[in-house]
Amino acid sequence: MVEIIENTLQTIGIESLNEMQTAALKANESGRDVLLLSPTGSGKTLAFLLPLLRQMRQDTPGVQALVIAPSRELALQIETVFKSFKSSFKVTCCCGGHSSEQEKRTLTENTPALLIGTPGRLLDHIQQGNINPETIKYLILDEFDKSLELGFQDEMKEIISHLSGLKKKMLLSATHTDEIPSFVKIHNPMILEFLGESGQKINLTKYIVHSPVKDKLESLMKLICQIGNEPTLIFVNYRESVERVANYLRKNGADCKMFHGGMEQVDREKALFQFKSGSSYLLVSTDLAARGLDILDVKHVIHYHLPVNQEAYTHRNGRTARMFAEGNAYIILHGEEKLPEYLSEDDFSDYPLLDNPPALKPSAWISLYIGKGKKDKLSKGDIAGFLMKKGLLEKNQIGTIEVYEKCSYASVARSEMNALLKRIRNEKIKGLKTIFEESK
User: Fold this and answer.
1) CATH superfamily of 204-350
2) Up-side HSE of residue 151: CA atoms within 13 Å toward CB?
3) Is 323 in a helix, a strand, or coil?
4) Which H or E run includes 411?
5) Is 269:434 a contact under the CB 8 Å cutoff?
6) What confidence score (pLDDT) does residue 178 get?
7) Close Cβ partners of 292 (under 8 Å, ≥ 6 residues apart)
């Protein structure tokens, strides 16, 4: 069993586990349920997926393990991580944005050992008889506190009531959990506490930026220019504010993307890809992006609006300094604003703004939209091969590639985009005619 873990880590390119992941692996060897409390970005996904490799069996039919996640984005990311293990266990993800009928065929015709999904969609499949819940022995509730916050109590209660064969449960949270609802049926769990006294990470440098006027947009723009071309998340409290801030930044020469719950799923996917791939360094978002999104290498978090509470502050900051890297958090305050009581000025340094900061430069990458996706059996390898063979790109001119249900995106060298579009305009990818265009 040790060999399985070592081989998997070698496959995904990780030399060793961190302290929290090691503790989780050991805890799952016991017969007790596990409650893991660890900050956002500390690597909890590996902490619950790796033990499943030890627990699941090749000769056991039906779904053996179930992972419930509060959001579609998180569910898909968990699936991606598990697939990167290249194990022989089949995995299926069930969530909004997928065809429910296609999921049904997968579940009934080629039943996975590991099932990942959001509460509503999973409950639908159970009620329709597409899943036999009695075969499920292992239950993972990822971002459990977020699921409760979003109001999924009824769905989770109903799902768990059907899991008569459970042997083990694991709950994961990035915040302290005062009380676990009785419907979870977890008793005397082994508690792994890695939040520390405040839940903050010591490798996060915190700054206060003083705005001379109540409307902080000009101060935000100056701050962004001083930060330069580094991945930056800008948090606001309202959907309308996302659009107002993003529009201002764009008018002043900043290439930024928007992300909030009122956007169509396809637009959210596009915005996240452009930010994660480096095609855009700026993402303006509500607290929707504060949890459940695997956005690596975010260097800066800017609190344009003060967070509504300490929990929101913690999760926003958790987007940077992930996996114990270094990061910076900035709170912009105008004269009438004060730090919330849960924050101390002693923990912050002042960040002075320049009168004439340097202008922003465009990213070296730009996003290509491809009008075919998973439903067309398109893979990342298909796209990379097409861009090199038909698009005449070098390997180092191709960046991140993501394949979604109905479309795909690839980041390519900005300097090559115009010539690339001319070369591939009338070409077919995997024998399919489709649209190729710059993703705005």
Assistant:
1) P-loop containing nucleotide triphosphate hydrolases (3.40.50.300)
2) 0
3) helix
4) strand 408-413
5) no
6) 62
7) 69, 70, 71, 73, 74, 143, 146
**CATH class, range 365-438:** alpha beta
Q: Can you give the pLDDT at residue 198? A: 42
pLDDT, tens digit, 9 for 90 and up, residues 295-328: 667 899 999 999 988 878 887 887 776 554 678 9
What contacts 413, CB < 8 A, 6 or more positions away? 364, 365, 366, 393, 397, 398, 399
> What does the DSSP assignment read for 239-303?
HHHHHHHHHHHHHTT--EEEE-TTS-HHHHHHHHHHHHTTS-SEEEE-GGGGSS---TT--EEEE
The rounded distance, in Å, linking the Cα atoms of 115 and 79 is 9
Asked if residue 53 lies in contact with residue 8, where contact means CB atoms within 8 angstroms, the answer is yes
Rounded Cα distance between 237 and 155, Å, is 27
Low-confidence ranges of the chain (pLDDT < 50): 197-201, 324
Structure tokens at 364: 């070296």
For residues 263 and 108, give the distance between their C-alpha atoms in angstroms, rounded to a whole number.
Answer: 32
Distance CA 423, CA 416 (A): 11
Shared fold status for 2-193 and 365-438: no
Instruction: Return the CATH number of the domain spanning residue range 2-193.
Output: 3.40.50.300
Please state, in angstroms and as integers, the Cα–Cα distance from residue 256 to each residue in 199, 249, 250, 378, following that order. 30, 7, 7, 29
Angle between helices 239-251 and 217-227 in degrees, nearest 10: 60
Other beta carbons within 10 angstroms of residue 238's beta carbon come to: 11
